[in-house]
Write a structure and sequence with these properties.
Elements lengths: L16 H4 L1 H7 L2 H17 L1 E8 L6 H11 L5 E6 L6 H12 L10 H12 L4 E6 L8 H12 L9 E8 L16 E5 L5 H15 L7 H14 L1 H17 L7 H10 L9 H17 L3 E3 H12 L7 H13 L3 E7 L5 E7 L2 H6 L4
Parallel strand pairs: 1-4, 1-5, 2-3, 3-4
Antiparallel strand pairs: 6-8, 7-8
Helix pairs in contact: 5-6, 8-9, 9-10, 9-11, 10-11, 12-13
């Protein structure tokens, strides 16, 4: 999507706010976590010892923003190291980047990973260190990735009084941690970052739009569509859609950004129209149900409900009562049947049987 320059129409107050205020708005929703991490970071860097905090979340959960905020706001005298690990292909390269901050002349080859760690610890010379390794998914599961983190954790016995090493890792999935059982679980804690909810995104977009445009010039209906865009495609993408919508409103000219402007922006940029109508919600639920059932002959009610709920996130949610209504509707159309089976330990489980996959593919909810 191309960033367009506006000629500052009547509706625009401060167009730079569309981007400038995003970090502060998002960080407000993570204040409790930020206080926790800041406190433990100060405890380690001031009091000594080793600690590793792992932030796990999808690409739009704010883990990089949190790590950079903590990195930049740390007023401790500790040395600070930040590596964007997407730019480095291996644990060896990452360790070399860390060491090169202290020893710029360190050779790019000829030393083992263990030797790099040992030299790094010596060069710290009793000083505490904040080490931020962002996006470690690609190399942490490797043998050297595991070795790097283990070696850093084992260095605690070699630290001087009051010397601390605080490591902050960010990753998209916990898969990279499967082989790190050698690290004391009390010294390595995982925090999962849940995605922002629809209501949180709506509130953020409302606040940002009131800074960028005069109050009320972005209609509430437009904001609701944009919140669903943000929930699926990310907040930055939603703001770019809003910027294009403002351009379309200005061209008419219109004194308000309306849903038609947002929808035009979505269509022109190849994005689906995230309509919040009841009809569209039913379509999404039907699509989720049919895609789950299409490859299965039978599935438990519990498993189907959990999978359907997950498939609808974060745009929509569905209650168990609503879910049953849709299942019953599929039953009336002759698509599925229900049966109760006994489990081995005497419990019972409800199973959904797909009786007609052909009807399933052509079914529709009224």
């Amino acid at each position: 999507m191309t960033l367009h320059c506006l000629s500052r129409p009547v509706i625009v107050k401060d167009i730079e706010s569309l981007v400038a205020h995003v970090p502060s708005e998002l960080l407000q929703l993570r204040m409790e976590l930020l206080r926790t991490l800041s406190s433990e970071m100060s405890f380690i860097l001031n009091g000594g010892g080793f600690f590793c905090r792992v932030l796990v979340g999808n690409h739009d959960s704010g883990k990089t923003m949190i790590s950079k905020f903590l990195f930049n706001t740390n007023n401790n005298q500790a040395l600070r190291f930040y590596v964007n690990c997407k730019m480095e292909s291996s644990a060896y390269n990452v360790m070399a980047c860390l060491l090169r901050v202290l020893v710029p002349s360190i050779p790019s080859r000829g030393l083992s990973l263990t030797e790099l760690v040992d030299i790094f610890l010596e060069e710290l010379n009793g000083r505490s260190a904040l080490i931020t390794l962002d996006d470690v998914d690609s190399w942490l599961p490797t043998r050297n990735g595991e070795k790097l983190l283990v070696k850093l954790s084992e260095a605690e016995s070699r630290l001087k009084a009051g010397q601390g090493i605080y490591v902050l890792l960010t990753m998209e999935t916990e898969d990279a941690l499967n082989n790190l059982r050698q690290i004391n679980p009390l010294k390595c804690v995982v925090t999962k970052l849940e995605g922002y909810s629809y209501m949180q995104l709506l509130s953020i977009l409302r606040n940002i739009s009131e800074k960028a445009f005069h109050r009320g010039f972005v209609s509430e209906s437009s904001l609701k569509i944009l919140a669903r865009v943000a929930a699926v495609k990310g907040l930055k993408r939603a703001l770019l859609v809003l910027l294009d919508a403002a351009r379309y409103a200005n061209a008419e000219p219109s004194t308000r950004i309306l849903p038609k402007h947002v929808k035009r922006s979505l269509r022109d940029n190849g994005l689906p129209v995230f309509d919040s109508s009841r009809k569209n919600r039913r379509i999404l639920i039907l699509n989720a149900l049919t895609s789950l059932l299409e490859t299965r002959s039978e599935i438990s009610i519990k498993e189907l409900f959990e999978a359907c709920s997950e498939a609808l996130k974060p745009s929509f949610s569905i209650s168990y009562v609503q879910f049953w209504r849709y299942i019953n509707e599929l039953g009336k159309k002759g698509v599925v049947t229900l049966k109760t089976v006994n489990k081995t330990k005497g419990g019972k489980i409800m199973i959904v049987n797909v009786t007609n996959h052909e009807k399933l593919r052509g079914v529709s909810f009224e």
